[in-house]
Amino acid sequence: MINTQDESPKHQLKLERVGIKNLKTLIKIERNNKEYMHIPKINIFMDLTEDKKGVHMSRFIESITEILEDEVRGEHNSLEQIGKHILEKLKVKHSYISAEIEFESEIPLFEITPVSKKDTIEIHDIKVSLRNNNGSWIKILEVSVIGNTACPHALAVNKKGTHIQRAIGNLRIETDFDNDIDLEEMIRVVDNSFSSRVFTLLKTEDESFVVDRMHNNPFFVEDVCRNMLSLSFSKFKKSKIHAECLSQESIHRHDVFAEGAIET
Amino acid sequence: MINTQDESPKHQLKLERVGIKNLKTLIKIERNNKEYMHIPKINIFMDLTEDKKGVHMSRFIESITEILEDEVRGEHNSLEQIGKHILEKLKVKHSYISAEIEFESEIPLFEITPVSKKDTIEIHDIKVSLRNNNGSWIKILEVSVIGNTACPHALAVNKKGTHIQRAIGNLRIETDFDNDIDLEEMIRVVDNSFSSRVFTLLKTEDESFVVDRMHNNPFFVEDVCRNMLSLSFSKFKKSKIHAECLSQESIHRHDVFAEGAIET
Amino acid sequence: MINTQDESPKHQLKLERVGIKNLKTLIKIERNNKEYMHIPKINIFMDLTEDKKGVHMSRFIESITEILEDEVRGEHNSLEQIGKHILEKLKVKHSYISAEIEFESEIPLFEITPVSKKDTIEIHDIKVSLRNNNGSWIKILEVSVIGNTACPHALAVNKKGTHIQRAIGNLRIETDFDNDIDLEEMIRVVDNSFSSRVFTLLKTEDESFVVDRMHNNPFFVEDVCRNMLSLSFSKFKKSKIHAECLSQESIHRHDVFAEGAIET
Amino acid sequence: MINTQDESPKHQLKLERVGIKNLKTLIKIERNNKEYMHIPKINIFMDLTEDKKGVHMSRFIESITEILEDEVRGEHNSLEQIGKHILEKLKVKHSYISAEIEFESEIPLFEITPVSKKDTIEIHDIKVSLRNNNGSWIKILEVSVIGNTACPHALAVNKKGTHIQRAIGNLRIETDFDNDIDLEEMIRVVDNSFSSRVFTLLKTEDESFVVDRMHNNPFFVEDVCRNMLSLSFSKFKKSKIHAECLSQESIHRHDVFAEGAIET
């Protein structure tokens, strides 16, 4: 049997990450008595030593596939847990020093509108990554949430009002695998860092509430970014916390941006 | 010599459009004493009769390449003119009934800020298409311009102010090849249809001007769309005019949208 | 109460489509004893008469939200059926002449690899649209499927082999609401139109099967497009059928493309 | 005069990067007796101390604008040189510790087809970044080039041939500002690392040349990545070199990927 992958490469150089990008599959998660159905985009990588020409790519897929089949037994309650099982299974097939898996997906939150008290479903982008480096595990949780900024400088200098725009808040937490952090709580932190959080459904009275709130909380992207870090500080322990805010300016063609980090 | 393309296909069906997508090249245009350098994305198609297995794709590229070489002789003053020469050259190589070429690019406009009177460069997305159907020529010019909407309903019901957001206006004009229409004039129409036009550079006094103007011209997407149609009506004769506005709501995760058309 | 939307607009022009774009929500479908969970991107539009300044955008969301709440009673077995209920509900709130709803989502198919007979999950992009024009309903079903093309001309003229590349097949069917057409069957048609269909998991023996099949079925994009139309002809009755193939050439930076249509 | 930006923020936290993203403008470069016209996407950032509420965003734009006006005097021969002048000008207006500018653009290369010896223009994506950290300058040059991979394992085990696909090679070099490295030479390295380089125009005899070359140089993504590192090793001195290859598999829906780095 021919095993081209195990041959010696022409240029004997170690590679940091070799694997698969943009694989899509179906994953079911049960968490807090709720069932989540994901069709995530998956990236999965491992290192490759200088003496091997290639990795056996089909083994990555097999590790994923076999774990997904095991899922019916109901043992997975988070994407990071499934990720850990996949990387453990991969370790048996491929002897790696470091490996990494990333899931990009969306989660729905069931919310109530602020004044009219109606049901509304809000969908947020999430990314869950897991890294194994020489046996130790690190997880990275990331949420990307839509909100807005109302410019405090324009509000201070103009009688008529200020400029307001959609903004995207990004919160990333790197921590130990066992440090239980909820994506919903991360989304809540970003929601509460904007001039106002936003809703898919807004009756007229809700819309007025949001408009008032934006004018009562005028924020630069720098403020939103610091709000995220400050709110995270008290909630997420033993973590590296990274926050970004991108504001799609209504008075410019370009965006404004702020980025910061703290450790807890 | 083997000519697989000229063989008879298994399923003898006519195809409407066969060709090349997403080709990039370098094109130089001289117009109104200004020189424009484009690296457009080009799509080029023709119909294929039911008795031919395929088109000779390299002939498309050759038609483009040969015309671009001719350019040094300085005879082209618009993308549609280059497009016409390419489709004429293609007709000699490939006998088609209908053919089409599209150029997606950007153009820079040199502007002055509204109060501080400083220089600012504004870049806009454009698309120029040319269709030959049985010998007759139609051109389609399209500009996509960034501006904003300030909600008139929220302004009417709230004391604090309204919600404002970035919006994208899209104006498309279909007309005879010989009807000379300027992309800059189309951009001006879209600029003037928003609550306010926007600028890359804004000093504090310019920013106040734009903020005031947005509050003085509160528009729904429907208003922006009708403004574009109404302003176009008096400017662009003998044309099919199509207008769209997409507003990236600051109070929602989704966008709102309006689309309309008139004929002049 | 102020109703800015019902005021008379400055420019009294009818608009073809006014509504919401890129709204995301959670939808559960039961079909053929399988449960599908969608987080679709939804667009929803209606026409607007020349005497109304704007539409009440929140009524669109309410129509969607109220239908989704009704869903627990289990009466929906397709996205088009949910879409029909949403547009019917919208008709009560907003008196329109024409309206339209679009769902962009993904569906997972549970497949078996060709030789090793292992389980594999394949995810495909789908789009389901529904239009009401003056009371009559039309639905448009669309699938976008990944496969490949192996060039027959290069295979004929070269001893070493041919050039092969990833290709995307797009099949769209426009038909009466009551004409029951399965998205899975449409995906199967596209799969069978390529040089070979592809799989997420491929053991070495499966990979050889796919490589052989690509070389045994060398196709231009024109062939793939005609294959889709020809296979659709016998399967999908009383429909307008539109097929596209885009081939991401391995020997060029650009793509090649073919597009055709038939009516059954 | 109100200067909201200089007020003390509520949460006194230092921010790593504050600035502008996705700004587009027009830039002219003269280099090696050729004139390049860029419409780059520009990102520009600086750090923000914990005692300042915000940065003056318009000063970023002014720094860019003023430098671009100076350009007519003809002193710029690279994007990194313009970037350095912009960051120096920004330092005068804003006293930062670290700052960064990024230009994303495209460059055209004028090439000759391999057998038919015809002219062809090839467009490549580039990114040029410049960082100032406490007075010291680092530049990062990046090129993204399209080519292909022909699988060596499938070629070894199948009689009919192998699977081939489009691939994207990415080469990034981090080095001192004064280390003169040519983007064209970086593109050449990536071109020569694939199974074959590709061309926009290919006559039949050129196509055969490319098809042959792909079959004579079967490479995994790992091989392409190592080829880039190995070829760079001898060419680019005193640099951190980072290489990636993404292969858009023709037999799968997903991509395969390899990434590595060396220092010279």
Automatic annotation (TrEMBL), chains A, B, C, D:
Keywords: Hydrolase. GO terms for molecular function: GTP cyclohydrolase I activity; GTP cyclohydrolase IV activity. Its EC number is 3.5.4.39. The keyword Hydrolase applies. It is an enzyme of class 3 (hydrolase). Pfam families: GCHY-1. This is GTP cyclohydrolase MptA. It comes from Candidatus Methanofastidiosum methylothiophilum.
